[in-house]
Amino acid sequence: MRITPFGAAGTVTGSRFLVQSGRRKLLVDAGLFQGVKPLRLRNWRPFPVPPSSLDAIILTHAHLDHSGFLPVLVRDGFKGDIWMSPPTRDLLPILLFDAARLQEEDARYAGRKGYSRHANPRPLFTQDDVEHTVRRLRRLDFDSPREVQGVRVSLHRVGHLLGAAAVHLTDDEGTVLFSGDVGRAGDLLLPAPAQRPEADRVVLEGTYGDRSHDRSQTLQTLAEVVNAGLGRGGTILIPTFAVGRAQALALALYRLRERGGIPDVPMYLNSPMANEASGVHLEHVEELRPSRQELTAALEAVQPVITTEESRALNRRNEPKIILAGAGMLTGGRILHHLEAFGTQATTTLILAGYQAEGTRGRRLLEGDRRIRVHGEWLELRCRVELFDAFSGHGDRDELEAWLRSAAIPPLGVSLVHGESQALERFRQRLDGRLQVPVEVAEDGRPLGLDPWSAAAPLDLGD
Predict the structure, then answer these.
(1) What's the Cα-to-Cα distance from 327 to each of 241, 242, 279, 335, 405, rounded to whole Å?
(2) pLDDT tens digit string along 182-239?
(3) Which of the four pLDDT bands, split at 50, 70 and 90, describes residue 453?
(4) Structural domain boundaries of the chain?
(5) Does residue 299 contact residue 343 with C-beta atoms inside 8 Å?
(6) Separation between Cα atoms, residue 178 and residue 60, nearest integer Å
(7) Residue of 17, 50, 63 lying closest to 7 (CA atoms)
């Protein structure tokens, strides 16, 4: 197999791996580039091979940086099947339709306001494109190998997100394992990643490959932060991803309240997409740690906020409260409206619960910046900003290495992807002296395992 990354190489986002097996072409993941503008602009480039030449696509999980490019590929000619785990099949339409709606709204707004350099700004993809994409989604059960276009494919649980999988491929030449995003052993919502299958090569994510999570943070730590904020009479704002993070936070806050760890104040989940995704979690509760009874109670404990008028009304309520709202890195969504309403108040606490990518407002706040641009205006924040990293869905360097070592070390080596360049290089240096096999940092457009001093054989770009 020849594997060439066309994303998630030297950056966290845009996961796309072209796999060539004989004359067959498979794509593992079809993600969007997110974050700083130079990355986002890469979404508008034509894919390096004609989408019509791809025979099948296999997804690791539903997050848009692994799945959000699918409608573009389908619109531009992809005609094959898209394989994924059953929970991912149920979550993916929610994320894709939401992304299309937001892009359509942004394009219309840019056209009205005239701030686009295009006379008629258009979305990257539309809801019609998503409709065509959803028809191609296929379910593949965990641990149930299937022949896909002459390649044996199996999915294996890795935590991180409901339905997330490592993708194991086998052909006549050997085996390769794509980790996708690897979760954590102590995740509140999801079981620990399963022991990985053996493979000749492992393509391993390294989002947190250069650091260890703060294991001193517990639910009690969260309670202390929440109680301090509520004690000042303020609002607790928690930016949250709609899928996974929102449900885990709801569970954490419910458990704390039931144990008397935090007071019984109003709690809100201001994300229609998160409320829809919660239903999918209940449909697949057998994949989760909490019981159906407890998860149902936790999700009912956070009052859903559906309409924009209900969202605006929250900004007029000054009593102590907790608001969970999208988006998790402050890149958009209803959390920004709440930040405008409450972020200038010293009594407000903003809790960042997880990874904040380069170029996002969340990252700038973590780096000490308190002046951010929101809806075209500069906002001077006076709220307290707290990082609660215990909710990160990514394993740190120790957890990633432990997952890698849960089976025989891959003889052809490890290829590091899905991380910022410096983080991946530090992770490479750590693993290089410990594994006794080649460890490389993947380069965009360069086949994995290729001697950097040799010339790459040309890709087969035809149909």
Answers:
(1) 6, 7, 19, 6, 34
(2) 999 999 999 999 999 999 999 999 999 999 988 888 899 999 999 999 999 999 999 9
(3) very low
(4) 2-211+394-441, 219-391
(5) no
(6) 8
(7) 17
Q: How far apart are CA 417 and CA 205, in angstroms?
A: 5
Three-class SS string for 208-275?
A: ECCCCCCCCCCHHHHHHHHHHHHHCCCEEEEECCCCCHHHHHHHHHHHHHHCCCCCCCCEEEECHHHH
Contact predicate 391/219, CB 8 Å:
no
Q: For residue 360, with 0-12 CB atoms within 10 Å meaning exposed, 13-18 middle and 19 or more buried, which class applies? A: buried
Q: Which residues pair with 441 in a beta bridge?
A: 416
CA atoms within 13 A on the CB side of 14: 23
What mean pLDDT, rounded, does the chain reach?
93
Element (H, E) at 70: helix 70-75
CA gap 91, 251 in Å, rounded: 19
pLDDT tens-digit readout, 173-184: 999 999 999 999
Q: How far apart are CA 304 and CA 123, in angstroms?
A: 29
Measured CA to CA, the distance from residue 423 to residue 418 in angstroms comes to 10
The residue type at 4 = T
Q: E-strand spans in 301-454?
A: 303-304, 321-325, 349-352, 371-374, 377-380, 384-387, 413-417, 439-441
| Confidence class for position 247, pLDDT limits 50, 70, 90 | very high
Count the helix, strand and coil residues of the chain and give each as a percent rounded to the nearest 5.
35, 20, 45
- Nearest in space to 166 (alpha carbons), one of 24, 55, 28: 28
What is the second-level CATH architecture of the domain 2-211+394-441? Answer: 4-Layer Sandwich (3.60)
> By three-state DSSP, how is residue 330 classified?
coil
Residue 408, amino acid: A
Where does 219-391 sit in CATH, by number?
3.40.50.10890
Tens of pLDDT, residue by residue over 374-385, are 887 899 999 999
Q: Cβ(31)–Cβ(59) under 8 Å?
A: no
**H or E segment at 421?**
helix 421-435
